[in-house]
Model the fold of this input.
Amino acid sequence: MKEKYYISTAIAYTSSKPHIGNTYEIVLADAIARYKRLKGYDVYFQTGTDEHGEKIELKAKEVGVTPQEYVDGVASEIKSIWDIMNTSYDKFVRTTDKHHEQVVQKIFKKMYDKGDIYLGEYKGLYCVPCESFWTESQLVDGKCPDCGREVLEKTEEAYFFKLSKYQNQLMDYIESHPDFIQPEARKNEMVNNFLKPGLQDLCVSRTSFDWGIPVDFDAKHVVYVWLDALTNYITNIGYDPDGSSDEFSKWWPCDLHLIGKDIIRFHTLYWPSFLMSLDLPLPKQIFGHPWLIMSDGKMSKSKGNVLYADDLVREFGVDAVRYFMLHEIPFSNDGVFSRDLLIDRINGDLVNVLGNLVNRTIAMAKKYFDSHLENRKVYENVDEELISMVNGIEEKVDIKMNTFEIGSAMDEIFEVLRRCNKYIDETTPWVLAKEESKKDRLETVLYNLVESIRVCALFLQSFLPETSEKIMNQINSKNQELKFNDSEIYDLNEAKILFQRIEV
Done:
């Protein structure tokens, strides 16, 4: 039996088309999911869309369509961009799916029957875009602390979840599970800013709009966004308060919730408390990733600096955009997008280091051996260093991937590719080709290069899946071993350019 690995992204809000900052999350999750599959895990990778709320109702009204028509259009656009980015999700969920809605109603009723949800009145300051209530003390300069927009004073009847009931249990859990919230800075923020001051009970229903899942025992209420949205992680794998499926037993608890740092509070305070109320295990880990921002700050339509992934892919290709996203955003700090840096990465890493290595190695094999290579095992000291580096990739990449340092993991692979280019300069195949007595040594050198490229290509499939497939086709290999194999026989295909140099 393979070990299971369940990874989820946050579900994207269907208010508008996702920009490259939103798209970064699905690409990051995809790299992790692909790497786990490469290492032999049985992976379930879930993503999707969050489709209810007042903001959606207002947007639909603005453009003269029903909320369902509105979210159908945006959800389709989001799914299209996830597909353009070549992401390998197993399920794309939508919170307007009937099954999800039915299970959410059951969850709400179960919590109500347990006494964890009660009817009250909410009077507070409300941010429509964020769909969040705030106290006066939480505002920043009188505005929403999350998005900086104006807030409205609202009073309405609402059901509340007893978040305060689970405060001590949650604090104990976080302290006894140091890896539960990552990076460390996010955990400290949650504990110091929210848990220690004390959790307030949470509004979980609304009456001032209709676009939501109806509370089935009180028709004037709809389930408020976070109880609806967060439960997607269990409703879509077979959870049911009346009796869950074998699928749920297999996949839950989730191994990793991958989310943006801006919604860490909802996933590390609300979601675990909901699960405790349902007597379910908590997810193993929640990682709040940083943002991809523009050189002039966060993307916004008012600044005119919003970029979309599909536009970049049309111009530069999917793997070039994936490489930039995964490489340029550090483990815990925001990454900055700049067109110049993207072009530098394409020309430097993808063209000079990777593309040229593959192209000239295959070209030399064709020129000197008619594209047929066997390992003649005429070794020299310089070979041992290269082979040792190739065999060391797995351990080094493992260490980086296990802590979600994706850019550093890619650097480990590119270090070996750079070493391959240096190896060509050191062994000078064009000089060896001039002497018949050096023919076996020349074939050994080229074999070492092709086999090193094969192993690197396998590791690259997590990050650059299209490019990895092209390389494996060009070297004509189906060997999935992650170590250097000294007894392959290669009949190489034609060399083709992997990345075009961009003239600035």
Observations:
- Residues 111 and 117 are 6 Å apart (CA to CA).
- The mean pLDDT is 94.
